[in-house]
């Protein structure tokens, strides 16, 4: 198996070539909770229609406690197959829930990624479990140097500390900061960094080890924390993230040079962290973006591209507001949140009540509070502080005192009305500029100097 790609593509291929009669129910097919007309609108990436879906129970189809009888049966068959093959151990009688090696919400991510095709989901799950074992993923996250971790955090989407109206964490990725100088400095630091003792013999490039750790933070800290915070459907764990991707001020050459950097994350998510992406709101698209979008679409299948919404300047505030309260939207994008690219999470009050011990005082008593750097785990009743500092393991446990929050779900209840006022179906009437740069790069592609990337699968 490759270092970080997966052989589970074979299972996808078999799924795509099978006949409809051979496939299990598709969670993207309208159910009794979904409007067929709405789903047709979603296929055209209509942000207003997508907001209405997100603010109803339609988005929960295929998730825990929102399964059809056929999907529930597929989950049971999947668990049985994983257990028979030695990749899953169920909870033992008398020990209660949570003692299984994998929870149902995690297993359902693999099933949704393969449209509830049990055999295809098992192949991807098996590949992932072997990949995690081969690369010692848990030990990597627990032992990574905290400064190396924070350097990587600044190169990829960052959690703002806030959530959308459904409770899904909101990440921001401001691409213009990743210029050639920044990328060169990061590459140099990665090559000079000290690798954790557990991974000194690893053949995986250091930059990918760091990227693995960032995904583990999403799965092992952000999602479990968000699952315990007030929201409309507390019966269903949070298993995905919403992303604001800001491409304003990015030149065509810079975008092309970042292709590999961004594709690393998309392929990794596709292979080993399936169904962790809810939506991407792409804002600030420059004039040449229609050309770039033609390349990007080759990296993903239609299900993934249906999650991406390209917003014009006029659409940014109404669209984001239809998905998340103003308090979760950074001021730069029309909201109220005091958060800028590079900042550590700025928690809302319910999150602060649970993990406020991870916050650090503002410098000189002014400005925004900070947040503890490096890997942490959220385990419901406690927080585990991990990572290494100056070559020494950092280990500390902090108990979580559960408090009743006064935060209401009024914003969630009002979301449907806000969605009705959201932007019209996405268009991208961008002026024609940067034609010389665009023509030069297209000529390089035509002449064979550079080649568009190969397609990948669903994130």
UniProtKB/TrEMBL annotation:
CRAL-TRIO domain location: 148-341
Pfam family, one: CRAL_TRIO
InterPro entries referenced in this protein's UniProt entry, alphabetically: CRAL-TRIO_dom, CRAL-TRIO_dom_sf, CRAL/TRIO_N_dom, CRAL/TRIO_N_dom_sf, PI/PC_transfer
Composition bias type Low complexity, residue spans: 410-424
Ranges where the record places region Disordered: 1-54, 384-459
SUPFAM superfamilies: CRAL/TRIO domain (SSF52087), CRAL/TRIO N-terminal domain (SSF46938)
Skewed-composition ranges (Basic and acidic residues): 384-404
CDD domains recorded: SEC14
PANTHER family per the UniProt record, alphabetical: CRAL-TRIO DOMAIN-CONTAINING PROTEIN YKL091C-RELATED, TRANSPORTER, PUTATIVE (AFU_ORTHOLOGUE AFUA_5G09260)-RELATED
Protein name: CRAL-TRIO domain-containing protein
Native organism: Paecilomyces lecythidis
């Amino acid at each position: 198996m490759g270092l970080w790609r997966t052989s589970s593509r074979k299972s996808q291929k078999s799924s795509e070539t099978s006949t409809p009669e051979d496939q299990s129910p598709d969670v993207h097919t309208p159910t009794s909770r979904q409007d067929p007309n709405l789903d047709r609108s979603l296929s055209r990436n209509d942000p207003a229609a997508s907001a209405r879906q997100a603010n109803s129970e339609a988005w929960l189809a295929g998730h825990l406690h929102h399964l059809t009888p056929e999907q529930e049966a597929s989950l049971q068959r999947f668990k049985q197959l994983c257990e028979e093959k030695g990749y899953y151990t169920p909870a033992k009688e008398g020990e209660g829930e949570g003692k299984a090696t994998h929870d149902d919400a995690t297993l359902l991510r693999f099933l949704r990624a393969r449209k509830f095709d049990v055999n295809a989901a098992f192949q991807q799950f098996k590949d992932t479990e072997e990949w995690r074992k081969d690369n010692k993923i848990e030990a990597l996250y627990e032992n990574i140097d905290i400064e190396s971790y924070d350097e990587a955090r600044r190169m990829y989407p960052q959690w703002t500390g806030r959530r959308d109206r459904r409770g899904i964490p909101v990440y921001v990725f401001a691409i213009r900061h990743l210029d050639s100088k920044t990328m060169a400095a990061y590459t140099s630091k990665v090559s000079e960094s000290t690798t954790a003792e557990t991974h000194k013999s690893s053949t995986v490039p250091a930059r990918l080890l760091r990227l693995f750790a960032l995904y583990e933070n999403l799965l092992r800290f952000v999602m479990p924390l968000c699952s315990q915070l007030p929201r409309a459907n507390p019966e269903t764990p949070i298993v995905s993230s919403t992303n604001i991707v800001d491409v304003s001020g990015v030149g065509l050459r810079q975008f092309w040079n970042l292709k590999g950097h961004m594709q690393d994350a998309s392929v990794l998510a596709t292979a080993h962290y399936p169904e962790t992406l809810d939506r991407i709101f792409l804002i600030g698209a420059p004039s040449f973006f229609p050309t770039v979008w033609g390349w990007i679409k080759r990296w993903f299948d239609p299900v993934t591209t249906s999650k991406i919404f390209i917003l014009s300047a006029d659409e940014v505030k109404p669209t984001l507001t239809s998905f998340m309260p103003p308090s979760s939207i950074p001021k730069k994008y029309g909201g109220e949140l005091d958060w800028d690219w590079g900042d550590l999470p700025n928690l809302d009050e319910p999150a602060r009540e649970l993990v406020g011990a991870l916050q650090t005082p503002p410098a000189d008593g002014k400005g925004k509070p900070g947040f503890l750097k490096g890997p942490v785990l959220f385990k419901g009743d406690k927080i585990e502080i991990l990572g290494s500092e100056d070559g020494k393991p950092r280990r500390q446990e902090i108990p979580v005192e559960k408090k009743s929050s006064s935060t209401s779900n009024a914003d969630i209840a009002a979301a449907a009305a806000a969605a009705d006022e959201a932007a019209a179906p996405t268009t991208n009437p961008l002026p024609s500029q940067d034609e010389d740069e665009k023509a030069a790069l297209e000529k390089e592609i035509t002449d064979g100097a550079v080649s568009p990337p190969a397609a990948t699968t669903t994130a």
